[in-house]
Amino acid sequence: MILLYIFSLLAIVGTLLPLSDRKHWIIRGQSYFRFWYALLHIILIVSFIFFTPFVLVHMVILPVQICLLILCLRDIIPFTKFYPKEIKSTPLGKIADLHIMVFNVYQNNNQYQKLIDLALKEDPDFLLLLETDHNWDQALQPIHDHFGHSVKEIKSNTYGMILFSKLPILKEKVAYRTDDDIPSISILTEYKNRSLRIIGLHPLAPIPGESLSTKQKDKEFKNVAKDIAKKESEEVVIVIGDLNDVVWSKASKAFKKTSGLKDPRIGRGTYSTFPTYFPIRFPLDHIFCSEELQLSEIRRLPNIGSDHYPITFTFYLPSIEQ
Question: Which of 237, 293, 310, 314 has the least CB density, counted as fewest CB within 10 Å?
């Protein structure tokens, strides 16, 4: 019985902490475990009702746990097939022709050929690679040659990035929005007579050894969202990257609200990509996009040596004449 009370306390505190505006990594990091806290609440509720003698304290614990279970489910259920989709599916008869791949290579990973082979096989229109240092840049020459267009900011601090494009790049920008060591990349191209903007992000990870706070990450989310909100209305926007945050966090919800972008995983699944080495995983590699896009497929690709799985998104974009 004492063990149940201990787990109840942990589940209650862990579920409530992310509601705080405090930005310490331990507080905000509890939101990563929403699914697991929901599961723990269910186990505890069933245990208290069916497998333990009733005592008065249960009249307090049970209502609290039921309320917190509902709170967890409120965040989780949108990423199931029981919830309406934010991004429509590609209509039958239409060929999805916009293919995007995102992969955090893990800077110390040296299995370069596995990525080269996978990228050439997938043949995406846009490929964002994160944690790319000089070794990765040199090893990926076959990919440079294949795509023909790229913007890169090579760094050895695990925050380098390369954005490859099959389409000619009309405008490009490498920006250090909130930190002199943390870049982002933005490109503007044209696709089906539309202006298409791709933004690649990799904010600072809120973990010991990198940052004990989510301040930089939250600020970058906010700044990018405000910039997107100011763009021309006819511009199609896609934001991709390892955002070091889960899709149901306060920061992610605020980003969507301010930017006006949608999440194609809503109504479909979380497609968790981190870590590859443990069965409990989190959806850290994201895509947010304009609602004009229609989704054909999301796929989490096989492990190729990183601590992240590669992930791909395939869209159909109606022509502007339609």
Answer: 314
